[in-house]
Write a structure and sequence with these properties.
2 helices, 5 strands, five-stranded antiparallel β-sheet
């Protein structure tokens, strides 16, 4: 059975950096390969070539522009999910007030 994996990557232009996400589907016990990342970036609309396999860096081409994309393999979002926090609070016992 296939499982979805969210990948995080940064798009590096001359004057800006964007943090973006992509989605790939792999078998449950399978880890993403550099070629899985490449296909995800292509599916996201980037014309990419592998630049550095070890650091997961891709060179991307757009008419009149060249930029790089780096996969963030160990990325952990530091944004809080307020919906999950509110749901968890509903399950916690409240202290009786005197």
């Amino acid at each position: 059975m296939k499982k979805e994996h969210i990948i995080h990557f940064k798009v590096i232009h001359k004057d800006s950096i964007q943090l973006l996400r992509g989605l790939i589907f792999l078998e449950e016990d399978q880890k993403p390969t550099i070629y899985d990342y490449q296909q995800c970036l292509i599916d996201c609309g980037h014309d990419v070539r592998i630049e550095n396999k070890e650091q997961a860096i891709f060179r991307a081409y757009k008419p009149g522009e060249q930029y790089w994309i780096q996969i963030l393999r160990e990325y952990e979002s530091n944004t809080r999910d307020l919906n999950v926090e509110n749901l968890a609070k509903n399950f916690m016992k409240s202290e009786p007030t005197a």
